[in-house]
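Hi everyone,

Forwarding the result from last night's run.
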Amino acid sequence: MGRNELINTTRAILAKAGFDVSSAINVRGICFDVVARLDDKVLIIKVLSNIDAFSKENADEMKTLADALGATPLVTGERSSSGGLEVGIVYSRFNISIVSNETLADLLLENAPPYIFAAPGGLYVKLDSELLKSAREARGISLGTLAETAGVSRRTIQMYESGMGAMIDAALRIEEYLDLPVIETIDPFTFKSEEREKEERIVHSMPDMFALNQLSRLGFTVSPVIKSPFDAVTHDTSTRMLTCFGDEDSKIIQKAIVASELSKVMDRFSIMIVERKKEHDSIDDTVVMSNEELKKIDAPKELTDLVASRRTKK
């Protein structure tokens, strides 16, 4: 299946599941292909035929963008160098979940979440570590007895009870022995989230621009992004805005149009700040503002109110 067809398949699954879905983002060199939103859940998705092409640089950019937007990064793919991605298995690269479109469809359309994840050494399942430990202790089952039943060491049982994933055969033997559902489903949207939180994020340095400095002085956090169809995410406790900088030339206008679509899907604002505004108060749904206008704003709410008013005038 060609990559465009894979992207459209991913989009169709999300749309059928009730997500608002962007069109495929046909901009060279960006870190994602599709964004989607359902209620408060926002997904930033990269689609690849071969997931071995997913680079650390791309993963880092997706995570930086996801953090700034309050979103979840996800990759859908078809195969790796080892073969096709299997249905019902969650893979990962650089602490970002990877699933096939079939697995995504089972999860979202059939309410059939995956149970298995791939990691170095083989395939594993997650165990309900608290249920496992409490059931073992309540029944007076020793670590040694459960270890012998599962075919693993006592130390491994202790690690299972501390949250480590289990080999499938061992987990099935434990579940059968205890007669309890200790094997948990996997949510690809939160899988590896704890590991992501522990990572040191790459923070892109900001150029010394009036607009950036003014936004920061107003109390906004400005998170620059590189491999995106906009230049930064500007946010505070209540607002997130996709932000473009430049002049009203054709390239910036195209950026504004793409940012507009993404902002509508994600229920965010989009704003383009230019040195000198020529004629537009907005481009599609992206509000255009000059440095001179920005200079006159004294509080964050003034900016968000102005953005909201110009959007509603269309």
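The longest helix spans residues 250-266.

Cheers,
N.
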